[in-house]
Design goal:
The protein has 416 residues and is of the alpha+beta class. Helices cover 31% and strands 25% of the residues.
Length: 416
């Protein structure tokens, strides 16, 4: 976008007054949001400065896209336009920690690695073992990102007890009448407001952990073994499967995690190994793929969710539409998985796979299949979120909190 020089100076001067001249710059070629060029980048140093930036943006009619470490800016649809990229990396740190309540209030720009290290000293953890460890807390919450521990502890929506959010007109709010602000902010992809801090429910560190890993041959076998684990009294903390497809050169596996006192965790793992049979083994370390996404940096990525008992049917549908087994990995005990495809996949083939997965899910109790990440030319030719991209409830909240569509315009909330 070409801007008059006088206008550009006015924007930079106003943002510099709010956040300091060293924390504002006119965007360069590298400052994009998933290929969408940005006008200016601003890095506020606190929640009050975020609010001031949003007040200025509202007055000038500028769109704003928040960012933490940028690890998931290419997830979901790109924004239709992005005048200001709001870099939250300076808003970091543990603001409050309550050992008695087992909660912590943390600034949104805090990296997950730094938060993990801080809590480790307190002998506790935030049970969000996400697949993008370089991410910030705000980015994880905004995308509702979760890892294997979601099986026991839930997604961010289940772990956040309160948030502070800067809304479109620049107010800082912890609650909004008629809405569960903390729950709706998680998974909002920055479309409702800018999360500046969150209060989180923590868990004690387990005394011991043990994994049971078993080779599997088919998605149907994964489903049967998963159901056996879920129905047992063994109470696994997580159940994950890795189906690497034909090109990854390793066997498919099912793995379950057990935690607790050392003797209890080990006994449950050994009992689970007997239950699963085959060549199941008990290990003190997770399999190499545990907690990682199946896709690489250049792959097309899908997210699938539905009833756990029906996930295997979706995998078969994807295989049939692709003409071969495709890499799938995820929390099969919850019916959530990610799929990797090469970036050379044709739009027709990709559309066929999305349609096949959505058709099976619709026929088997509901769920969804989202195009999480893909080159822009592919995304423009397929329905990334399905024929009904946003629920009426999500649209109502968006209209109430961001009626001018200034915050991450064109992005979509996570419906899973």
């Amino acid at each position: 976008m070409i801007r008059e020089a006088g206008v550009a100076v006015t924007v930079i001067e106003a943002l510099a007054e709010a956040c300091g001249p060293e924390n504002v710059w006119e965007a360069g070629p590298a400052d994009t949001v998933d290929g969408v060029p940005v006008g200016w980048v601003v890095a506020p140093g606190g929640a009050a400065e975020v609010a001031e930036v949003l007040r200025f943006a509202a007055a000038e009619g500028l769109s704003v896209v928040p960012s933490g470490a940028g690890t998931k800016l290419d997830w979901g649809p790109p924004p239709t336009h992005a005048d200001l990229l709001l870099d939250l990396g300076r808003i970091a740190g543990v603001l409050d920690f309550s050992p008695a309540a087992m909660t912590a209030t943390v600034a949104a720009g805090t990296s997950m690695r730094a938060l993990r290290a801080h809590l480790l000293k307190e002998n506790c953890r935030l049970p969000l073992d996400v697949g993008s460890p370089a991410a910030t807390l705000g980015g994880v919450l905004a995308t509702n990102e979760a890892g294997p521990l979601r099986h026991r502890f839930g997604a961010p929506r289940d772990l956040v007890t309160g948030v502070q959010v800067a809304l479109d007109e620049g107010s800082l709010e912890r609650s909004v009448d008629g809405f569960d602000l903390a729950r709706h902010a998680c998974g909002s992809y920055g479309t409702l407001g800018v999360i500046t801090e969150a209060t989180l429910r923590l868990e004690p560190l387990p005394a011991a952990r043990a994994w049971v890993t078993r080779p599997v041959t088919t998605p149907r076998e994964v489903q049967q073994l998963t159901e056996a684990l879920v129905a047992s009294p063994l109470d696994p903390v997580a159940i994950e499967a890795d189906l690497p497809g034909v090109a990854r050169g390793r066997p498919a596996e099912l793995a379950a995690l057990f935690e607790g006192e050392r003797a209890v965790a080990l006994q449950r793992a050994e009992t689970a190994a007997k239950l699963l049979g085959g060549a199941a083994t008990v290990e003190q370390l997770p399999p190499a793929w545990w907690g990682r996404y199946p896709f690489d940096a250049d792959d097309v990525a899908l997210k699938v969710w539905g009833r756990p008992s029906e996930l295997f049917a979706v995998v078969y549908a994807l295989r049939d539409a692709a003409g071969m087994p495709v890499p799938v990995r995820g929390s099969v005990g919850l019916g959530v998985a990610h799929v990797a495809l090469p970036d050379t996949v044709s739009p027709e083939r990709l559309d066929g796979m999305l349609t096949a997965a959505r058709t099976v899910l619709l026929a088997r109790g509901g769920g969804g299949c989202t195009l999480l990440r893909a080159p822009l030319d592919l995304r423009e030719l397929v329905e990334t979120h399905g024929p009904e991209p946003m629920s009426s409830d999500a649209a109502r909240i968006k209209l109430a909190l961001d009626p001018e569509d200034r915050l991450s315009p064109g992005r979509m909330p996570d419906p899973s």
